[in-house]
Design brief:
heterodimer; A: alpha+beta; Ubiquitin-like (UB roll); DNA polymerase, domain 1; 3 domains; 5-stranded mixed beta sheet; two-stranded antiparallel ribbon; 7 helices; 7 strands; 13% strand; B: alpha+beta; Uridine Diphospho-n-acetylenolpyruvylglucosamine Reductase, domain 2; Enolase-like, domain 1; 5-stranded antiparallel beta sheet
Amino acid sequence: MIVLKSRFQTKTMYDEKKPLQDQAVSADGSRRDFLKKSAVAGIGVAAVKIGDAVPAVASEPAVEGGIAVEKLTVKLSVNGKEHTLPVDTRTSLLDALREQLEMTGSKKGCDHGQCGACTVIIDGRRQLSCLTLAAMCDGRKVTTIEGLADGDKLHPMQSAFIERDGMQCGYCTPGQICSAVAMLEEARNGEASFVTENINAIPRGQKLTKAEIQERMSGNICRCGAYPNIVAAIEDVQAGGAK
Amino acid sequence: MRPFAFKRPAGAEAAVKLVAANKDARFIAGGTNLIDLMKEGIDRPSELVDISRIPLNLIRSLGGNGVSIGALAKNTDTANHPLIRQGFPLLTQAILSGASPQIRNMATNGGNLMQRTRCAYFYDLGTPCNKRQPGSGCSAKDGLNRYSAIFGWSDSCVAVHPSDMCVALAALDATVKIRTVDGQERKMNFTAFHRLPGDRPDVDNSLSHGEMIVSIDIPKNNFAANSYYLKVRDRASYAFALVSVAAALEISGGVIRQARIAIGGVAHRPWRAEASERILAGKKPEATLFQQAAEVAVQDAKPLSENAYKVRLVQRSIAKALGRAANL
């Protein structure tokens, strides 16, 4: 809370008198960076206000609809880094990642488990972070789009998406890429899909057909319809034997 | 979303006690349906009891008596388990036809049985729905009912059960093993687990509050070589069934010894076509026979204003699924 307050009070990134669009790109960073900082500043204001009224360790918890708002502490490993997070029981893993850890790579598309934009890899399995409670992830290992690259070296799936232009607006892309990475791992492990011809004769190191890739990626919706290029990118990675 | 208390008891006994003690408490495991219902405000539990780490996730052979699948095993792991792939491929196919890979990686077997209808009015808080709010009325019966039931519905509710997995389990004569509130174990035939709506469509199944599914047991059968799950939907993948058919045949010496047919997307529970099964028993597998069996299956169908197409679709789907199962 104190950290947020001091960051807000520096006022280096936001001038209230200037129109917002004139300062959309801050001198020291990207527009995205700017938006992130102003969002944090907003939280800072709220936090300070609450902080003035309620002691840091609240003796009486907040109540909504007659039910106490419960806070939990969750230990999460995200992209190899350990975090200890205070979360509301209602917080989704997606919100914890985006709002608390400021990792906005995972996207909130529908927030109802229908689009796949929030796909992350939990303990090796692609899952939907919007339908996952942060409280249920205590001790889990989470990999997000931010954790796929090796330093400045992109993950082969990231490179393939760029090479094949596997996106238009890009909003579904982090989910598509996380999903595709885990999907190829599932295939390597010999998992079947609904279009697998013979579920009891899956060859070791099966190479997925286009139809197989389409079926196995059907949990990730792309409103721009970049599907042909997404499938081509995945085929490239599969052919290259990439990790 | 309303606030709720979150508990993670050490085992099944404690979990059952917690839920039984609070009528507004719910078990949570995969959460793929419950979290969504809570976000929509359709379900408003005051307490969630996390059972996802309780070790009821085994898939094990019952020797000569079939297989037991743990209530907390993931759908993906169940579909891909060698015992299921080899002995009960119908179940593998049905599971893999449902939802998306991400959801199947999260969803548990017990949770699959517990999922609620996707009837649009059930999700629309602005419209009457007897399942969501008993006594308010059914908006689908004379409304948008293209996806609704053609069998077993009542004036109170025309919703259908959304699961694919459950259609296969109904065909395979599964048994649901349940831990009762007083710590006993009871068993229920799978076909008795889900209810018809009657005048209590708010009650989906025969579980009492606090009871917990422990496993689903499937008896040994001779269907593995001749079974097929057919799913018809509005898009090629990741959509609920308009109609689905789980067909299983035991064929030896060129004769059908016994048959199982269950239909999805047509009723408040997976719908067994027992009259059709009886027609098939003892006969040679032929297309004309499958047509006959399919005709019998829809004799009692009662379509609504927008879903008469399902009657013909069921008929054709049964004939096709039986043909595939018999490798015709």
